[in-house]
Each structure stands twice: as structure tokens, then as C-alpha cells.
Amino acid sequence: MAKRSTGSKVFDTLNSFLLLLVAAVMIFPFLYVFSVSFSSVSDFLENDIILWPKEWVTDAYEYILGSKAFIRSLFVTVYVTVVGTAVNLFFTSTMGYALTRNVTGQRTILFLVLFTLLFSAGMIPTYIVVKETFLINTLWALILPIAISPFNLIVMRQFFLSIPEELKEAALIDGANEIQIFSKIILPLSKPALAAFGLFYAVGHWNNYFAGVLYLNDPAKWPIQVILRQIVIVNEPNAALGGHEMSLEALPPPETIQMAAILLATLPILLVYPFLQKHFAKGVMLGSVKG
Amino acid sequence: MIKIVPSKGGDVLLAENDVEVTNQSENVNALKGKQPKREPSRIRKRLWRERYLILLLIPGILYFLIYRYLPMGGIIIAFKDYSPFQGFIDSQWVGLKYFRLIFEDPEVVKVIWNTLQISFLQIIFAFPISIILALLLNELRNQYYKRFIQSIVYLPHFLSWVVVVGITVIFLRSEGLVNGFLDSAFGMDPIPFLTDPNLFKPLIVLQVIWKESGWGTIIFLAALAGVNPQLYEAAIMDGANRFRQAWHITLPAIKSTIIILLILRLGNVMETGFEHIFLMLNPFNMESGNVLDTFVYFKGIQQANYSFATAVGVFKGIVGLVLVVVANRLAKRFGEQGLY
Question: B180: pLDDT confidence band, cut at 50, 70 and 90?
Fold first, then answer.
């Protein structure tokens, strides 16, 4: 490579610095939330900005994890995420595979799938259908109405199409039927893709807030995001976390409770993030939309 | 694609020409000369041959029928005075009453205006930031440093809107970090960031920038990965500096991606991100922040005005559909691949 001019070197330094600044803007809110959640009352009250806790205090976490409402909502969300993702993968992969195999009506079905990307009936008719199918106030309301993302379905079909035809033909000659080909050949070959789609679906379930508000009336069934909104945005941490025996003076300050709650609700995302990154770096999700 | 084959019985059968990829059993039948003699049974035979595939299709088809297409049938309530007690069938037909109301109700006009404003502010301010960020990331020479920055700027995309709005509230409320800083540094009174209607839209755009601009670079970086490095080497030989290289090589390489994303975004101007707006709304900023989606929720679910809310939703859906189709045409006119 030719030797670089001074201007080019100056640009590189400035660019690296600028991007570091951008990264700092993205990470700073987390650092602040993290540090305050572990700070003591006095530390929090005395300082305007806390970037690192002076003494590590876990009062806020103990308070939150002692709350039945919070734990219950965590269980609800874990349940919806696990069952929901399983349903997503089952529905998306079976349909996605069948649509690669020249089944009768394939073109019509593909068109109808694509059309749902362009037009949807809207909130009210969907709500009425969810109600008429007896899902209101059940956790299935957070799962079944979004069992398939049409976009993911199309990308997954695209992935299945990339598996060599010869494998399927060989299996057919050996007397396998389509369901056996799907479960014994296609699915094992698609593990990385299924993991990627599963992760993206799972993050969607974990972060889903509005379906809980729309379809669940019973606070005992509320997922974590609904509780988190009450704690932080509505600014009623103690009400949302349920009555506590502690006297008000003994409670950790609401700010530290709020930040601890944010961190706890985000922890699973942070834990799977390295895996997510591995997959989107490979570009698995960037498949073409063309059918 | 589809041949129409008149059968002996006089009824018409559809035979698709893509049968050549069908399975082995048919080929065996063909070899043995066992092709079906009675034409009307061919469809039944084909369906029987495909029984396992059909079995695989059933869950997905049921899903689309029940949760995607049944609601489209439910749109008829926009043409009726629907009440849950009378049901779909018995509710009174009222024709286009509720669609006319859309344009007569000043609130709806205001809501449409809010929706368009928020969308266009995002297109003007948030959209270019992803492009600039992608260009800057592309210039980084150290691949480890590049990956490090990328893994940080992609992260906010995976956070829920509750968390993003929650952090916003913690930072911007009157006793929050920003107002605390303004007070101790300049002795300023707290600024009502979260309730001032004039600050609602800029705040929404800033949040979208924070959450999505890093993630938005992915598609551009993917396009840039395909650029031939020899182009840059040739440009250096010709004495092009870094800026000229970016201008003449990098930018043209993502030009078509930019155009298609921009056009698709324009086709989606009716979408503003329901959860995001809904979580940011409060009684004080409602006049500036209420958009079509949230309006439908308040009218339909909270006030139980199902028919009117459905009409507004259908209006939004149809305008969105038309815009996407037009945008797709435009994309093709620009010589790009469309969405479909």
C-alpha cells in the first residue's frame, strides 16, 4: 500500500475518536443506570452524576427480588418467551419448508403471505378476533396472534431453498416421506438458521409490551415490560412491586429501584447479545425479501 | 406458467408446469406408463401425493386464515354501527358514515398531521445518520476496533421501548440527571422535557436515532463488503484522497441501497412505531404526540367506539398499501429491485 498522507492520518485519528464518542453516547445511559442501581442512598443524594458506585450496595436488588409481583412477571415473560419461540419456530419452519416444495397452491399462498406484509386489518378487527377465539386474559394471546412473522417466514423459506435439492431427492429415493425429510434432513441442517430466528423471535417476545396491555386484564398475568413501565415511566415503583412490610424510611430510594429494575429486565437481552451478534454478523437475517 | 388443460369430462383442470421437480413416485409412475387415465382424479391424486406437505402447511395456513385474514373480514364493522352485544351480523349497516367522519373530525386531521410530521422528521434526521455512521465505520482501518464499535452501536436496537423510554424519563424528568446538571451548572429551572408538547416530536426522533441508527448501518455495511478493493487502490494511484475515495467509490456503492430504503421508508410514512409513541404520551403532550395508531387504540379499545376506530385503521392501511405500491413502482423506475 502506498504511504499515507498526513491528512489521511489526521482523518483516521479524528474518525476513531468520533466513533468512540458515538459508542460512549450509546453506552453511557447503561453505565449510569448500572452504577446508580448499586449505589448507596448517601452516594446517590450527594452526587449529581454517578459513573461508578463508591460502595457497592444491593438493597435495591434485594427489594425487587423480594417482590412477588416482579418475580411473577418474570416467570410470565420467561414462559411466554420459551413457549412463544417454540411455537414461532414450529409454525415458521413447517410452513416455510412446505412452500419450497411445489405444493398445490404454492403461488397463491406465497402471494397471500406477502400481502400481509403490505396490508393488515388493523388493531380493532385483530382484537375482536383474539377475543372471539377466547384468548383474552390468557398468555396465548401473547403467542398465537404473532405465531408467524411473514418476513421471517419468507427469509426462512429462502434459506431452505438454498439447501441442495439432491439431498431431498436422495431421501425420496430411499423411501422417506416429506415429513421425514423435513425432520431428519432439513431441520438438522438448519440448526444455525433456526438458532438465529429463534433468538430474534425470543427477543421480540421478551420486549413485547403492548400485547400485554391490550389483551391481559389480570395484573397477575402481566409480563415484565408492563410492570417495568409502572415502576419507571409511571413512577410508582412501590405500588407496582406490591405492598412491602418495610416501613417507607427503610426502603431504598425509588431511583435506585427503578434503575435496578431496568437492569434486571434487560439482563437476558445482554446475555444473549453475543450470540445475536454472531448471527446477524453472518447476515443470516439479511436474506432477500423476494419470494 | 399455468396451462389450462381441458379434460374429457369438459371441466377445466389447472396443470402447473413446475411439476418437473416433483417427487420420485410420479417419475416411477411415468416410467411404468401408469399415468392416471381418468382426468378428474388427477387433482385428488396430486393432493394425495402431497399429503405430507399439506400436513406441514396446515398450522401455518390456519394461522394466516385466523389471525391475518379473518380480521380483514372483520373490517366490515367499519361500515356498520358495531356493538359487541349485537355482533357482526345484526349490527346496523351505516355505509360510509365513519369514513366521512374521518375527514370531518378535526381531531383525526390533527392526528394524521402529527403522524406525517413525525415520519418526515425521522426521514430527514434519523435516516441520513445511519448512512454517515456506516461511511465512518467503513473508514476504520483496525478491524478489531471496528468490530468493538459495531457491537456497541448495535446494542440499543435490542432493547425494549419500555427500557428506552424508561431511561429517557430517568434522564429528563424534573429531578433527573439532565435537569440536575442544568441546575448545578447554570442555575436553570427544570425544563419540562417530557410534558412540553413542542419537545415531543424532537424527543421521539432523538430516541429513534439513539436506538436504531447503529443497527441501520448493517445493511449499508453489507453492501460495502462487496466493493472490490482494487477500486480503492486504483483511486489512490490516481491521487484521490480519502474524501474523494468515499465520494466516488463508497457512496456510489451504496447508492442503490439508499434509494430503495428511502423509497420503502416513504411508503411507510403512516407507521410511527406504536409502542414507542404510546409510552411517551401523557395528557400534557397528547395534542402533539397522538398519532393514527394511538388514536385507534384510544378510540377503539378505551372508548369502545369500534366502528370509527376500525375505519381510521382501514384508512391508514389503505393509504399505506397505496404508498408502498407506488414506492415500489418508483424503485423499479430507478432501475432498482422492488420489494416484490
Answer: confident
Q: B99-333, what's its fold?
A: MetI-like fold (1.10.3720)
Are A263 and A33 contacting, i.e. CB atoms less than 8 angstroms apart? Answer: yes
CA-CA distances (angstroms) from residue B211 to B129, B207, B263, B293? 12, 6, 21, 20
Least Cα separation, residue B105 to chain A (angstroms): 19
Q: Is residue A288 predicted with pLDDT exceeding 50?
A: no
Distance CA B3, CA B7 (A): 12
Which residues in chain B have Cβ-Cβ distances shorter than 8 Å to A124?
74, 77, 296, 300-301, 306, 309-310, 313
Distance, in Å, from the CA atom of A142 to the CA atom of A77, rounded to the nearest integer, reads: 10
- Would the CB atoms of B139 and A15 count as touching at under 8 Å? yes
Q: What is the pLDDT of residues B12-22, one digit of tens each?
A: 334 444 444 44
CA atoms within 13 Å, Cβ hemisphere of A45: 6
* Sole residue written with cell 382484537: A127
* Per-residue CA distances from B176 to A229, B21, B170, B194 (Å): 17, 65, 6, 11
Residue A248 forms contact with B (CB below 8 Å)? no
The verdict on B133 touching A (C-beta cutoff 8 Å) is yes
Query: Do B270 and B197 contact (CB within 8 A), yes or no?
Result: no
CB of B216 less than 8 A from some CB of A: no
What are the extents of the domains in chain B? 2-93, 99-333
Q: Is this complex's ipTM strictly greater than 0.85?
A: yes
